Structure of PA2169 family four-helix-bundle protein:
Amino acid sequence: MNYTEEISKKLNNLLIKNYDAEKGYLNAIDNIEDNRLKMFFKRRVSERSAFADELRTEILRYGEFPENDGSIKGVVHRNWATLKSAMSSNNEETILEETIRGEKASLEEYNNILKDRNLPPSIDALLYKHKNAIQASINTEKSYKEMVS
């Protein structure tokens, strides 16, 4: 595999994670009542959609083809989160636990790719920007979780 294909493969993995996160937040919006959380999750949907757009642009810039959808693992996680929240007495806390878990998985994926010190500077900067936003999201979600628990 050449360098261009290798970078595109890594970016496609992140793209899939962003599709999964976007769908996870849409699922969360449908399963909560709190308007503050709905607005927070809507902002995360927009943010993850923007991340996906940026990643697609980079993949295309390298002459490769971006993925078009999320993963089976993401579908399973969303279904599990829906089932778990349906059986929970504190729906919002349960949903926040699952969104935090999903964001931590995304953060781990970003960290793994950022270990590659041979990334072009523009991609490196883009991935750090995404990573920092995801970490901020986790911190905010933890604060919301403390408020609803």
